[in-house]
């Protein structure tokens, strides 16, 4: 193989020179120089082992995908040739020659289950035409993005780097950078792309990073210029100059020697006078801007200025200082350190006589900056969390509320952030939400507390956001308090929402016995039935049964009766079936098929009718068989042991309810009094003709309801 590779390389080099010569000769003298530059550029792409790259011929479709020259640019005039650095056919041959096992070997990434393991975790990637798993991290999973980039960069395979570029472009076109964005990862990615001569991809990543206001390091920019010069990529100069100007305008700071070095490199690559003039113009503009804001670049001076603002209590000036330092500070780590000092200043040496809230004045000033970005919102949110913890510790509920109101006003989603200093820097998400909700409650704002909980998706304890048992207990107490206060205001839907999110109902790591919530849920169910909120009552009962929360049978029976009296028969029958399975009523199976139905006298007319329906369906085959009209269906109205002390009037009322139940049926059923048994219980017979007619009209749905039990 080694000998074949050496021989192939020699042949390839010779063929490439001949191809370039032939192509360039075929064009007229006007286009010869441009074609030669393009041919040279095509030969500079990375080559797989033992393979030669054929001359680059661009189709119309390929040309559309290339970088286009910028038109009407104020910096320089002129046109440049198109840029094409990668041959897809070569990559495909390279992939086929690789061993299949190597390509499918996992890369060692740990990903959430919703992401495609083949796309993210193998060299080959996903080959499904339609994959049901995600190929791009979703919003909020920026940390997954960063982990994937780090792994791909460490492996340093061409296909993985190209996949990283695609992922970077798709994710940050849709979502802004968040707290997990790592500038070092961006710089490492660009550096790896340069080493593989993927200049087109470098330009794509840098352009998008400028749009999202996350600039690469100055060192990377210089390396790009060096690469273009070393490889003599004259056609890439216009695009590079455009990126350079955008970087300077976005805030990248260069020293005069950097500008001189870039100009020197441009001369070596034979850049035009207009292109070099554009660089020198940016140098003049930057020097003017640095002259005005030079003092902000000194971090120590900025930190001293913070103390000055604190002594005077001038928080508006502190906000302006933040804006100036943001414009002048090159390293994001230094800027974060500066923001941490601001957070400490806003929450240190508290004096009760001060009426205002420093954070609110500071945040208001920063938010008015025309260049305010999502990064600023994130930092304001983290500073706000530190201020919130500070006032919570001092029990200054009104001031803590003002901090939260300001965060809400500025549309800062702080529930997914952490503080910048102190214990809140490591606080779990559940704890931050608990403290914010408690501050609202102490100020009498139930709506505010509910807003915070909903904003956090009621999160308690998950693998991504773990918390300790004390935080879970605090959440339990907090939600119970909110539920009691909301229920007292007859807000049943909101109460149910709160109770559904108690610890134990989510996919949490804590094992909580949900049966302890029986009292709360039964209290809600009772209130809903009492107010005739049947839809909500039904939902509460269904939830309790599905979660095995003990339900008060008297409430469940009242619900069934109310549903029937409101002609909500589907719901009434469903809950009656559930009540039977829970043991709310005496079992029916022992007597149903003996053509004898025992109905307790304490049942309502709705419950009696549902029991009769089951009785009819269970004996349907015998009722509908020819020659069985002489067989009698009997109903006994049972006296209950606990009701023996009751008066005769109670039993007589039960007789009237039984007659009403028969009349409620559609079509009506007819029952006839037969006798009184030894227990002094009334015995009735169900008329065969009315039973047969009922089955003919209702057996289709009744059979599905009463014979096919889904519980």
From TrEMBL:
A zinc finger (C3H1-type) spans 110-138. Its main location: cytoplasm. PROSITE patterns: ZF_C3H1 (PS50103). The keyword NADP does not apply. Residues 110-138 form the C3H1-type domain. It is found in: Cytoplasm, Cytosol. Transmembrane segments: none annotated. Coiled coil: none annotated. The keyword Cell membrane does not apply. InterPro entries: TOPAZ1, TOPAZ1_dom, Znf_CCCH. GO terms for biological process: cell differentiation; spermatocyte division. Keywords: Cytoplasm, Differentiation, Metal-binding, Spermatogenesis, Zinc, Zinc-finger. Pfam families: Asp_Glu_race_2 (PF14669). GO terms for molecular function: zinc ion binding. GO terms for cellular component: cytosol. Important for normal spermatogenesis and male fertility. Specifically required for progression to the post-meiotic stages of spermatocyte development. Seems to be necessary for normal expression levels of a number of testis-expressed gene transcripts, although its role in this process is unclear. This is Protein TOPAZ1. It comes from Rousettus aegyptiacus.
């Amino acid at each position: 193989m080694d000998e074949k590779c050496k021989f192939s390389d020699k042949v390839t080099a010779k063929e490439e020179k001949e191809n370039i010569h032939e192509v360039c000769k075929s064009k007229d003298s006007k286009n010869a120089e441009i074609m030669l530059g393009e041919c040279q550029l095509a030969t500079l792409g990375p080559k797989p082992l033992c393979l030669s790259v054929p001359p680059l011929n661009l189709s119309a479709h390929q040309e559309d995908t290339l970088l286009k020259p910028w038109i009407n640019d104020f910096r320089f005039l002129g046109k440049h040739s198109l840029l094409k650095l990668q041959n897809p056919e070569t990559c495909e041959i390279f992939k086929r020659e690789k061993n299949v096992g190597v390509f499918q070997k996992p890369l060692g990434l740990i990903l959430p289950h919703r992401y495609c393991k083949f796309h993210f975790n193998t060299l080959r990637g996903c080959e499904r035409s339609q994959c049901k798993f995600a190929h791009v991290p979703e919003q909020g999973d920026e940390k997954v993005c960063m982990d994937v980039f780090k792994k791909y960069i460490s492996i340093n395979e061409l296909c993985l780097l190209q996949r990283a570029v695609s992922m970077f472009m798709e994710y940050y076109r849709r979502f802004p950078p968040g707290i997990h964005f790592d500038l070092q990862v961006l710089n490492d990615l660009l550096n790896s792309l340069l080493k593989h001569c993927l200049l087109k991809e470098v330009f794509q990543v840098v352009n998008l990073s400028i749009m999202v206001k996350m600039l690469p390091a100055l060192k990377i920019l210089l390396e790009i210029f060096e690469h273009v010069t070393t490889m003599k990529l004259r056609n890439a100069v216009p695009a590079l100059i455009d990126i350079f100007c955008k970087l300077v305008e976005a805030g990248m700071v260069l020293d005069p020697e950097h500008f001189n070095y870039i100009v020197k490199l441009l001369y070596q690559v034979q850049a035009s006078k207009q292109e070099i003039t554009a660089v020198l113009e940016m140098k003049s503009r930057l020097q003017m801007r640095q002259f005005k804001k030079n003092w902000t670049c000194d971090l120590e001076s900025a930190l001293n200025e913070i103390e000055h603002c604190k002594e005077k209590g001038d928080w508006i000036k502190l906000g302006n200082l933040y804006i100036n330092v943001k414009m002048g500070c090159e390293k994001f780590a230094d800027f974060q350190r500066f923001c941490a000092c601001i957070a400490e200043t806003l929450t240190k040496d508290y004096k009760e006589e001060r009426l205002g809230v420093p954070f609110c004045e500071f945040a208001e000033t920063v938010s008015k900056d025309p260049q305010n970005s999502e990064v600023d919102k994130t930092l304001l949110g983290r500073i706000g969390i530190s201020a919130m913890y500070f006032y919570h510790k001092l029990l200054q509920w009104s001031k803590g509320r003002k901090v939260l109101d300001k965060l809400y006003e500025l549309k800062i989603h702080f529930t997914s952030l952490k503080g910048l200093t102190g214990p809140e820097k490591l606080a779990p998400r559940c704890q931050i939400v608990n403290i914010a909700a408690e501050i609202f409650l102490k100020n009498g704002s139930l709506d505010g507390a509910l807003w915070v909980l909903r904003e956090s998706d009621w999160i308690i304890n998950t693998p991504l956001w773990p918390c300790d048992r004390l935080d879970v207990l605090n959440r339990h107490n907090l939600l119970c308090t909110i539920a009691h206060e909301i229920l007292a205001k007859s807000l049943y839907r909101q109460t149910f929402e709160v109770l559904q999110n108690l610890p134990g109902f989510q996919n949490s790591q804590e094992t909580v016995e949900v049966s302890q919530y029986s009292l709360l849920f039964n209290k809600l169910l009772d209130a809903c039935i009492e107010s005739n909120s049947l839809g909500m009552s039904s939902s509460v009962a269904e939830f309790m049964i599905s979660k095995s929360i003990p339900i008060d049978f008297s409430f469940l029976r009242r619900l069934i009766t109310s549903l029937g009296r409101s002609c909500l028969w589907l719901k009434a029958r469903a809950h009656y079936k559930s009540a039977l399975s829970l043991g709310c009523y005496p079992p029916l199976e022992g007597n149903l098929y003996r053509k004898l139905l025992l109905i307790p006298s304490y049942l309502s007319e709705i419950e009696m009718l549902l029991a009769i329906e089951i009785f009819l369906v269970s004996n349907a085959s015998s009722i509908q068989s020819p020659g069985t009209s002489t067989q009698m269906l009997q109903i006994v109205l049972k006296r209950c042991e606990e009701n023996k002390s009751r008066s005769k009037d109670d039993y007589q009322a039960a007789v009237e309810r039984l007659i009403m139940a028969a009349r409620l049926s559609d079509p009506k059923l007819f029952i006839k009094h037969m006798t009184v048994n030894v227990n002094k219980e009334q015995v009735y017979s169900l008329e065969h003709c009315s039973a047969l007619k009922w089955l003919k009209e209702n057996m289709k749905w009744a059979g599905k309801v009463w014979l096919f039990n889904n519980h």
